[in-house]
UniProtKB/TrEMBL annotation:
GO terms for cellular component: glutamyl-tRNA(Gln) amidotransferase complex; mitochondrion. PANTHER family: GLUTAMYL-TRNA(GLN) AMIDOTRANSFERASE SUBUNIT A, MITOCHONDRIAL, TRANSAMIDASE. InterPro entries: Amidase, Amidase_CS, Amidase_dom, AS_sf, GatA. This is Glutamyl-tRNA(Gln) amidotransferase subunit A, mitochondrial. Coiled coil: none annotated. Allows the formation of correctly charged Gln-tRNA(Gln) through the transamidation of misacylated Glu-tRNA(Gln) in the mitochondria. The reaction takes place in the presence of glutamine and ATP through an activated gamma-phospho-Glu-tRNA(Gln). GO terms for biological process: glutaminyl-tRNAGln biosynthesis via transamidation; mitochondrial translation. The keyword Mitochondrion applies. The keyword Transmembrane helix does not apply. Its EC number is 6.3.5.7. It comes from Dictyostelium purpureum (Slime mold). Residues 11-455 form the Amidase domain. It is found in: Mitochondrion.
Length: 462
């Protein structure tokens, strides 16, 4: 069932593909419902799921060796909601291990290839972006109408921009995290990748809701998102919106094609009567280091559950292991089960949470998080901006064989991370191709729980 093996899917989009028998069964059931008029909201629509959402009876690996044999006994709330509305789950998409990465090259199951790469030319293969690279590639390749992704610091928006699809990270809390394997719980957000904003709104409509039973951080959205979105589309225009341009995002690393697109979008908006103002988000430059301390701290704690005892991969005993104890089993299991990036982050997170370093690192990073969040509050509150426009990443997709140093890789996230720290919603909107024929996008950001306005604005630009 793994289409990686038959050589057909050179994109390496999926870790697991649903069996043909099961797909056929679901399609038949859906056709029956259409025939007798009992069809549901998403009946018959093919959806892919990032492999860090638990799926009952279907392997859920998080792109890691440590979960290579893990078959959950329960569905994540979002998967259950999709199934209950008749969606057909076609498979589990490849990703950076536990969501740690920006290019989907940190997977135990190999790198995801960007569908915009020239087929067959090994030197022309581009990264899909990460960590939801499999989900983004699945949409770009036309395998499905929607895909679930998760976004902790940009993992939906960045791959969406590299693959030229819509990638939407909702307000933190409006979608249940139950069954989304935790990376950094205070930032992890489930969201969707689609071809357009209408599809994103339709999916959101199914996915939102307070999960009283299973996720105490989830909240009620408080309005009918789809209705509000459609209502705005039919009654409002670009003239009703105030767009903010954060000058702090004008970084020296910005690719000329992306800068040009950003400027073009602003001129187009002004041409059509929208209001554009320059705004300051003064703490932007502290967001990246704060994020990498907070995310790794939470990860070091969350990932402590993978010890080879309860579930997942366990070090296989060999004759040389005779006499070793339980702790050695933990160590060997985790040494073999986790990849390099994950280990690096567990060490960094443990350091920042340690008794002697806690106040210097973790506490300080939390304070920065508040300042970054207050920047957004001021722009959306006092300055009455409806939607911010920024680039998604400093550059379009880079080549698979391009070796980047770790700092450079982390810098890819500078434009998505502040938004994650603030918990506000954002969407990556594909608009153009660069001179190298690679998709480039802008990121729109709105105030918390203003997701309907956000998707409406994104629709206007597309
Ligand atoms: N690239 C960022 C990281 O590695 C964000 C990843 C994500 O959003 N899951 O932490």
């Amino acid at each position: 069932n793994n289409i990686n093996k038959d050589g057909e899917n050179y994109l390496n989009t999926f870790v697991t593909v649903e069996s043909l028998d099961n797909l056929e069964k679901q399609i038949n059931e859906s056709q029956e419902r259409y025939a007798n008029g009992t069809n549901k909201k998403l009946d018959g629509l093919p959806i892919a799921i990032k492999d860090n959402f638990t799926t009952k009876g279907i392997k859920t690996t998080c792109g890691s060796n440590i979960l290579s044999n893990y078959i959950p006994t329960f569905d994540a709330t979002v998967c259950k909601k999709l199934k209950d509305e008749g969606a057909i789950i076609i498979g589990k998409t490849n990703m950076d291990e536990f969501g740690m990465g920006s290019s989907s090259t940190n997977s135990y199951y190999g790198s995801v290839i960007n569908p915009w790469s020239k087929k067959g030319d090994q030197n022309e293969l581009y990264v899909a972006g990460g960590s939801s690279g499999g989900s983004a590639a699945a949409i770009a390749a036309g395998y499905c109408m929607g895909a679930l992704g998760s976004d902790t610091g940009g993992s939906i928006r960045l791959p969406a921009s590299y693959c030229g699809v819509v990638g939407y990270k909702p307000s933190y809390g409006i979608i249940s995290r139950y069954g989304l394997v935790a990376y950094a719980s205070s930032l992890d957000t489930a969201g969707v990748l689609t071809n357009n904003c209408d599809d994103a709104a339709e999916l959101l409509d199914v996915l939102v809701g307070k999960d009283t039973e299973n996720d105490s951080t989830s909240i009620s959205f408080g309005k009918d998102i789809l209705k509000e979105y459609k209502n705005k589309l039919s009654t409002k225009t670009i003239k009703d919106l105030v767009f903010g341009i954060p000058t702090d995002y004008l970084v020296k690393e910005l690719d000329p094609d992306i800068l040009e697109l950003w400027q073009q979008v602003v001129s187009e908006i002004e041409l059509h009567g929208g209001k554009v103002v320059a705004v300051d988000l003064p703490h932007t430059r502290y967001a990246l280091p704060a994020y990498y301390l907070l995310a790794t701290s939470e990860a070091s704690s969350n990932l402590s559950r993978f010890d080879g005892v309860r579930y997942g991969y366990r070090h296989e005993l060999h004759s040389e292991d005779v006499g070793l104890g339980l702790k050695d089993m933990y160590t060997k299991t985790r040494t073999e089960g986790f990849g390099e990036e994950v280990k690096k982050r567990i060490i960094l997170g443990s350091m920042s949470l340690s008794r002697t370093q806690y106040d210097n690192f973790y506490t300080k990073a939390q304070k920065i998080r508040r300042l970054v969040s207050d920047d957004f509050k001021s722009v959306f509150g006092n300055q009455k901006v409806d939607v911010l426009i920024t680039p998604v990443a400093p550059s379009p997709a880079f080549k698979q064989n391009q070796k980047l140093d770790p700092i450079h890789v982390y810098i890819n996230d500078i434009m998505t991370i502040p938004i994650s720290l603030a918990g506000v919603p954002a969407v990556s909107v594909p608009l153009k191709l660069s001179k190298e024929n690679l998709p480039i996008s802008v990121q729109l950001v709105s105030d918390r729980l203003n997701d309907d306005t956000l998707l409406f604005a994104a629709n206007l630009l597309m």
